[in-house]
Amino acid sequence: MAVAATPDAIHRGPPLVGVARVIDGDTLDISGQRVRLEGIDAPEIAQTCETASGQSWPCGRSSVSALKRLIGQKQISCKQRGQDKYRRVLAVCFTDGRNINEAMVRDGFAWAFVKYSSEFAQAESDARAKKNGVWQGRAIAPWEYRSNEWQVAETAAPSGCAIKGNISGSGHIYHVPWGPWYDKVRIDPGQGERWFCSEADAMEAGWRPVASQ
């Protein structure tokens, strides 16, 4: 999920360098530090899009795969540009001299998140013209997809708090309504599981977001 850096959290630290693990189409983990690719917004893992002929395809999982292909097992370098309210570093990352953020947009596996930055707007325009990735057919912008999923989930959630805090062998994990396993998770308050009203609340309580597989 994308957010802007908070004004009091803006800082430019030294580059983060290392082998990255892909969390989703716009989020990485480098040595335990979550890194949000700034200026882009990739489709959520469970999200689907349409081809030119109207057939459904898993654009969310394809975005994850595209990011994994870009990064591989190579060392990457990320220029820090701030930190969001979830304590993720906002960064522009590079591998072999290639701008990963821009490549994800240019290849059609992410949107330019112009609400917060116009840096990759031209890359999106080029992707649209070539009908790359999500631009080959109908696709809902990820911020609209998240909003729609939240509205559906909050009608059935206690007090409208639609984030599920689940405890499993993987630890204390929270699931957002647009997540791939959200509908399968059942919350048992008797086992210490709970509902949260925001991701910030879940993280403050010690839960962590689920990662892609």
Describe the protein's architecture and organization:
This protein has about 210 residues and is α+β, with helices and mostly antiparallel strands. It folds into two domains: about 5-140, OB fold (Dihydrolipoamide Acetyltransferase, E2P) (Beta Barrel); about 145-210. It contains five helices and 14 strands. The strands form four sheets. Strands 1-2-3-8-7 form a five-stranded mixed β-barrel. It has a four-stranded mixed beta sheet with strand order 13-11-12-14. α2 packs parallel to α3 (about 120-130). It is globular, with a radius of gyration of 17 Å.
What descriptors fit this protein?
disordered N terminus, 28% strand, alpha+beta, 5-stranded mixed beta barrel, 14 strands, single chain
**DSSP strand content:** 25-35%
DSSP summary: helix tally: 5
The CATH architecture of the largest domain would be: Beta Barrel
Radius of gyration: 17 Å
Specify the structural class: alpha+beta
CATH topology of the largest domain: OB fold (Dihydrolipoamide Acetyltransferase, E2P)
- What's the helix-strand series? EEEEEEHEEEHEHHEEEHE
Helix content: 10-25%
Mean pLDDT reading: 91
CATH class of the largest domain: Mainly Beta
Shape: globular
What's the end-to-end separation, in Å?
17 Å
Biggest sheet, spatial arrangement of strands: 1-2-3-8-7
Q: What is the count of structural domains?
A: 2
Low-confidence stretches: 1-10
